[in-house]
Amino acid sequence: MAARPPMSTLILWVNYLSFLPLRVLPMIAVLLVWSTTTAAAHAAAVVVLDEQVMRLDQAELWLGLTATPPSDDVDREPVHLPDIWPMTRYDQSDNGWYRFEVSRAQRPTATWGMYIPRLTMNAAVYFNGELLGDGGSFAEPLGRNWARPLYFAIPNSLWRDGVNRIDIRLRSYPGTGLLGAVLIGPQVMLLPRYEKVYFFQVQLSAGLFLGTLGASVFAFGLWRKRRDDSQYLWFAVAAFAWSLLSSNNFVTHIPMSSYAWEWLMFSSIAWWTAALGLFVHRMLGMHYPRIDAGLILYALLAMLLYAIAGKHLALVAAVWMLGSMLIGVYMVWRLLSVRRAPLRTPEGAVRGALDGPYQIGLLAVGIAAVLVVGIHDWLVQNGFIGADRELGHHLIHYSAALLILFIAWHLNQRFIAALNESEQLNAELEARVAANRRELEDNYRQLHALDHERAVAGERERIYRDLHDDVGAKLLSLVYRADGAANADLARSALQDLRDVVSHTQHEQLELEAALADWRSECDQRLGAAHIQLDWRQVDELPVRVLTQQQVMNLGRILREAITNAIHHAKPQRVVVNIDYVLSQLVIEVRDDGVGRDHGEWRPGRGLRNMELRAGELGGTICWHEVEPQGCSVQCRIPLP
């Protein structure tokens, strides 16, 4: 059986790749490209450095279908390895036997091995008629080793002194067979070379397969959340198609017929390029319905042609892949045209929306690199160059995977930026909604309070109206029926209080001049009815002020109470009302020439206490004193800045 490197290397590689942060993928990509291209350049010029390692590149070939080495008498033709069947015997056979002869004077003391760096598609190795191992099944579905090197240890017991015979059975599909030079030598020298090639061409491909498949699932998940943004969908299709294709590097036992598997692999190449072209269109925000339809039609036609190609599948695929190369050229041209477009053009606006030309330029360079590598691999696959290369004969599996991971990283960065922006906008929106909600709640409370005030004012107005119509009429009757001037004035004062309440509750504010005019008219009426002279003294330059309802009500009541006291107690001939404005204070003084009384006889009653309380509510003061030669004076001061 073929020797296989321990799976621990693959497991470590897969674990490393799966937990790798996306931000370091570009750096790892550069390292991988450097390592693979360096290995390829080194392998392109492989020479046998140790004379014990023999390179077998001359053989005799017999084409025929047998399960064991043919007899010695069959006709064989000499061939030089690498032997490329598509170029030499495209339609002759899909099974052949190669015979080599190795001469040694004596048997080797250490274990030797046989290393086949390159073959297509499966091989079985016999040493001196004994089977050393094979690369899998020779019946359908055929074991696949097109990118897998084979290594077999040669037991010392099988060696003969002199000539040793090696028979290698090669089985492939029509038109696809290939056998490279065979290396034979000490196991300590060949096995490390085999493990190196096995890692790069099989294990590394398996790790990259997991990366590209994960990128496909990631992009598909983004598309499920953002159905309108189809760039995620087409990138998911491209990454998935490439994942299918890359599985061809490490899958030996396929779950279907060989032809169906080849059809799937070649179709994956068509869908990979078509979906990548559609992704580029969507990423650039450009809509080309005819080109988009052409890309999809290209992939569908590829599936149809490959399905009916039959034994010419490899030839049809080789020709049809030229279309994928043209699609790659178109993508590079489209990206570079957008990158160079001035900002004032629609393409320039797209470039600005995609964070400037940097990302677009990197994507163009990446696709161009994959295109160049793809052309190289196409030439290798069809036998034009590098047919005998030990390592790196197919490089697109590395470059395309790195391109996919780079695009996935870029989409992840854009998605995170868009998510952060949406979360910030959502937070701002929530703050605005909360502020608007608070404002609406405040407005609702204000409207509720206003409605309450209106209801209260309406009810108060109804009560005032009833008081005016009922109580006011009765007070007016008392004025006319009073049996004395004092009783008439008392009734008149009560009537004026009622009118004052009713009239001033409808007004929040009143100008000072208007209030003084109302007070003067009232004083003149009351004092005239009591046959007392009014001397109203008002300074000419009073400030223009607007009194609140509280100020109007309290000042009017203070003045009314002072006039009432003068009429009822002082029995004056004249009352002087002096209005002044001193040091930002409104000064109202009521002075009479009545009988007066001694200061020790003053006893504050309800009227005086009410006057003090009203003055205090306005932040002012009130005082009484005797005047010479007779009479009393009441002075009220309230701040009126």
Q: Could you please describe the fold and organization of this structure?
A:
The structure is a single chain. This protein has helices at 7-18, 25-43, 85-88, 187-225, 231-246, 258-283, 289-308, 313-340, 346-353, 357-381, 396-481, 485-504, 512-529, 549-570, 606-617; strands at 54-56, 58-63, 77-80, 83-84, 95-104, 112-116, 119-120, 122-127, 130-134, 150-154, 162-171, 178-179, 182-186, 509-511, 533-538, 546-548, 574-582, 585-592, 621-626, 632-639. The protein is of the alpha+beta class. The protein has 3 domains: 9-21 and 204-408, Rhopdopsin 7-helix transmembrane proteins; 51-198, Sandwich (Jelly Rolls); 510-639, 2-Layer Sandwich (Heat Shock Protein 90), CATH 3.30.565. The strands form 5 sheets. It has a 6-stranded antiparallel sheet with strand order 3-2-5-11-8-9, with no helix packed on it. Helix 4 (187-225) packs antiparallel against helix 5, helix 8 (313-340) packs across helix 9 (346-353) and helix 14 packs antiparallel against helix 15. It is rod-shaped.
Largest sheet, spatial ordering of strands = 3-2-5-11-8-9
Q: Give the distance, in angstroms, between the N- and C-terminal Cα atoms.
A: 111 Å
Morphology call: rod-shaped
Structural class: alpha+beta
Give the quaternary arrangement of the chains.
Answer: single chain
According to DSSP, the number of beta strands is 20
Q: How much beta, percentage-wise?
A: 15-25%
The CATH topology of the largest domain: Rhopdopsin 7-helix transmembrane proteins
Largest sheet: 6 strands, antiparallel
Low-confidence stretches: 1-49, 348-353
Q: Indicate the percent of residues in helices.
A: 55-70%
Number of domains: 3
Radius of gyration: 54 Å
